[in-house]
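The protein record filed here:
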Amino acid sequence: MRDFVACAVQIAVKPNDIEYNTAKVIEWLEKAVVEHGAELVVFPEDVTTGFTPNMPVEQMYEQLAEPIPGVITRLVGAAARRFGVHVVLPMYEKGPSSPIVYNSSVLIGPDGEIIGVYRKTHPFPTERMEGGGWTTPGTEAPVFDTALGKIGMIICYDGDFPELARELTLKGAEIITRPSAFLRSFDIWELTCRARAYDNHVYVVGVNAVGPDAGNNYFAGHSMIVSPIAQRLAQARGTEEIISAKLSAEPLKYITYGSKAPMIFDHVEDRNLKAVDGILQSGQCPFEPSKRIPYKK
């Protein structure tokens, strides 16, 4: 990768108002470029609608889900081309037939063209259609080679699963973007963003929603940009705002920030694969949650 400025744009949506929210995305995209010199701009999860649709999935498929490519990606793509910036645009994607809806993240290049699409592989339990929700899980974790560096994308609850970020790292990701509509504590949000960055020695750009969605959930923001040695390079508050940080192409020279002590280890290289043989198998945690959602498998 090369040195560049990454921006997390933390904005509130008007629930289920695609036209309004798309216009707002373009307005704040321009602010990120003009005020911060952004070269990569990441928006919160499902920024064109808000997270919870509060309607039957069949109605959501017709009214809120959009094809990729489609009208939204063309409008934001035109803005990306005008401002010469990479954009991570999270939105609900219309699947091949009703009621298939994907919770997706679109990477758009500075030429306005779609570089790639990621579909959330670990929807939150209440979100999964097989648990009574509205989204269908994706099954792929691609990494995209860009002029900035190699970018992998995850979405919100995905960040709780170390295996997914590790897979992206093994595929070459240097930056992992994490658009979110995170409702749990700040401690868990910070922990998982910093852990996934430090586990894999990659940058994590975590962008959380702020304000309400159609289900009357209120999101607390606190977006952050984390370095490969777990330093918070930028930290947002609980309101609409933009944060930015310059990402260095050489972030592992020193063992901690502010120190000149050399870094001499690599978490990815230093794994003992024999010790973790068999990790990819189904299971349950040793303690019972208050309720298990009866997934239809």
Summary: The helical segments are 18-36, 57-63, 71-83, 162-170, 186-200.
